[in-house]
Specification:
By secondary structure, the chain is of the alpha/beta class. It contains 16 helices and 13 strands. The strands form 2 sheets. The chain has a 7-stranded parallel beta sheet with strand order 3-2-1-4-5-6-7, sandwiched between helices. A 6-stranded parallel beta sheet has the order 10-9-8-11-12-13, with helices on both faces.
Amino acid sequence: MKIHISVTNDLVTDQRVNKIALSLQKMGFEVFLIGRLLKKSLPLNRPYSCKRMSLFFKKGFLFYAEYNLRLFFYLMFQKTDILLANDLDTLLANFLVSKIKNKKIVYDSHEYFTELPEVFNRKFVRKTWLFIEKLILPRIKNSYTVCESIANEYKKKYNINMKVIRNLPNKNYNNEISHETKNKISEIKQFSKNKNIIIYQGSINIGRGLEEAIKAMKYIDNSILLIIGKGTIYDDLIKLRSKLFLKDKIFFTGILNFEQLHHFTKIAKIGICIEKNIGMNYYFALPNKLFDYQKAGVPVLSSKLPEIYKIVKTYKVGISIENHEVKHIAEKINFMLNNKKKLEIWKKNSLCASKKLNWENEEKILKEIFNSIS
C-alpha cells in the first residue's frame, strides 16, 4: 500500500516525519513524502521517495493557500491508498482528496496548532484555522499527537480519542560521523577553548527563552552557549549577541542535518529547554530536544511547563527554573556547572532514561494505528 505524507517544512530538520516514514516503510508501506523547497534547503538523502515543492509565497495566508492548492492538485493525480497529514496546515488538502477519491486519511498533530503564538495573537488567522479544525478534525477517525495534554484538550474540544506518539529518538543512532561534521565540531571546540558548552537545539522562534539565555551568559564564566537551528528570530538573536558584546560566548551554527545532530549534542555539558508559557501550545510542549539531550547523556535545565517538568522530575535528569529572570537562569546554570557530582548523576540518569524513552517503543502505537486501517 502507498502512503503519501505531507508537511509544510523543507523536511531537512523534521526528525518526527522521518522516523514516521522509516517506520511505515519497515512495516511494508510504500512511502512518498511531500514537503517544501527553500532557497537554502540542504540536500536530502532518504531511502524513500520525496518531493519538495518550490512555492512563490514564503509565509502567511497566501503561502498556506498556495501550498494546500498545489498539494490538492498533486495528490488528486497520484495513486495512493492512505493520506497522512502533518499538522493543521496540511489537513484541508488531504481531507478534500480523501473524500473525493475515497481514500483513508490519518492526522498527526505535531502542535496544538491554533494555540501557536503566531496564530493565537491574530484574530482573523486563528478564526480561519479554528473553522478548518472544527470542520474536519471530528471527522478524522485515525489521529495521534505528541503528548497526553494535547490529546486531552482535543478530547474536551471535539470528543475525539487521539493516540499519543511522542517524538522520541531511536534506541540506536548512526555512529558514522561525516567529514563536514568533524570539521564543524572542531570549529566549535576551537571557539570554546575547552570551556563548558551549553547547548540549545531546535527552532529559533519566540517563546523559547533564548533571549534570556543569551543575556544570562554575561553572568556565566568559562562557558559558551551553542545555538543550533534557525527560525523567525535568528537574525534578532545575532544582533542581540553583538549589542551585548558576547561574540566570544555565543556560537550559532544555523541549520544542521539531524542525522548528524547527536554528535554535536554529545560535546555539551548541559542542555537548555526553557520554553515560556505564551499560549497553550507552549504550555503543553514536549520538545524532542529534551529527549535528544538524554540520549547524549546531557543534563537539562528546563522550564516548569507540565509535560517537560514531568519528564525532568520523573527521570531526575536535571533541574528546572522558577522564572525567566536573566540572573535566575544564570544562577541555575552556574549551580549545575559547579556541581560535578550532580552532573555525573544527571548524566547517568539521562542515559538510563533514554533506554526507556525511545522511538522503538512509540513505534508500536504507530503500528497499531496503521495495521487497523490497512
